[in-house]
Design brief:
heterodimer; A: 276 residues; mainly alpha; two-stranded antiparallel sheet; 10 helices; disordered N terminus; B: 364 residues; alpha+beta; 4-stranded antiparallel sheet; 10 strands; 38% helix; extended
Chain lengths: 276, 364
Amino acid sequence: MIRRIETLHTMATTSAAPARRVGRRHPLATTALLVVGLLATGGAYALATTTATADTRAASAQLIEDGGKLFAANCASCHGMNAEGTAAGPTLIGAGALAVDFQVGTGRMPMAASGPQAEIKPVQFTQEQIDAMAAWVADLAPGPAVPASRYLAGDGDTAIGAELFRINCAMCHNVAGAGGALTEGKWAPGLAGVDPVHVYGAMVTGPQNMPVFSDLNLTPEEKNDIITYLKYVDENPSVGGWDLGSLGPVSEGLFIWIFGLGALVGVTIWLTAKSN
Amino acid sequence: MAEAHDGVDSGETAGKAVAQQDDHSTPAPPVAVARLDRIENPGFPPERLRVTDLDPKKEKQAERAISALFFLSIVGSVLAVAAYILFPIDPLDPGSIRLNNMFLGIGLTLALLGVGIGAVHWSKALMHGHEQVEMRHPTRGVDETRERAVEIFSEANAESGFTRRRLVRNSLIGAIIATPIPAIALFRDLAPAEDPVALLKYTMWEAGTRLARDPSGTPIKASEVTIGSVFHVIPEGLAELESHRLEEKAKAAVLLMRLPVDALNETEDRASWSYDGIVAYSKICTHVGCPVALYEQQTHHLLCPCHQSQFDVANHCKVIFGPAARPLPQLPITVDEEGYLVAQSDFTEPVGPSFWERALLVPL
């Protein structure tokens, strides 16, 4: 490994070297720099690999084993001992680490009771335990993995994110992400304050009745734009003032019917009543 | 009646006035029937004096309260101007609109409500509180005035020759009738120039049009549509349209879904309309045309958010709940040689809500 990287470095410099010699630097400057650079990177890499690889492998094997134990204790009654699925729960083979991170990380799994939809509960496991179960499920068959943190940063284009959100998400989740009702007791949850990794995970894995928005439909950059938009909505108060939960004409109409008309009735009574 | 107009009489006299007026207006019964159930006009109840009439201290208080309201209105007006200057709208910061509107609104509310509430309070608490009756004036003019009016009309007729000079009069009537005609011609152009029925029956889709993502317009490969996916689709080329883009989108919008092949129950004649579990349906509800896009990937139900119509994607989008009368029209799709999803033809029926000439569709 180290040798390969060194050869790559040397190849790169030999091709670049003749052009540099024309400059005003000392003829040996490039070589000196090269030697220093190679020693530094090579040395650091060697240090990191010799200690880390063995550890990661051991750690991940340990992690998968721990995950398997946690799965057998907490999930297997519905999903089957080998995650093959039962009448009570779907197979998790190929579900991927991201699905586990979403379902367990938001408290939806383990499910308290079967119903139209898994409800959000306090999270039952530590992040290490969730990672262990995710590693075990990911080890069964390839599936969506937890994305790189640069796609979760929420530093994308808010305007593009808002447009994509309006086209792909707003019909269920409401244009301000306030959530909404679906059929037969199901609902699309509100998105305020949801961890970006769970927003991303929901799009990629399509939990429960939510459709899948794979990376071939919305690229990771576009998902980051959507996360940026949700972050913007979270952090900026509504331009129009008090939004009454952003639920649209129902809550606004109810408010104006009760308080607006109520105030008018009150004023009318006051206008016509005789003073004390 | 004259006393009533003076407005200085007490409640009792006003009550008598009402009673008298009532007597005058009651028509004489045609036959001698004893009206035992007749209700006597009770007149006004005895006048109750207000606290401001009885207690000079209260009167002073009310006076101060009213002037305080008017001063509050002045403060509100100043505040509104100050808010407009202190919280300008920054075009780059939407949050600035919020502060500007809120303080401007508070200022104007104080300014207007201060005057309004103050004026009403003044009239209720301090202006004199006697009840009085003001009779209606008779609407018929005196005979003299009526005769004079007729005289003016006939005089004007004689002087202008309106009835005598018939050519002038009739050409004037003709001219007045003709003036709105240009408006009809102008406003007629607001309607579609083409036959609107044809516009409603056909969309941008035709054989070989690629299905593209909304809003980017990039074509979609069949391999990109994973199971459980939903794509919001426009015809390729729509994004580049120079004119009528929104009208075309409103008709051609499509929802693309992929179901497990064994979950689809397709009729024989439509089995070739899908591709490997990928189906495309019009996004325009057949009820009143809302975009139907609330797709549940496990139940394969589509829900319209406007009136809760539900469509079963697994069974050719037949209506399973709600006011929609017809299934969503299906767009027949297939795959071209490069692997992109393409339409086999336009929709085979008009999309969206029903209209009268809908049934007269010429087969494609």
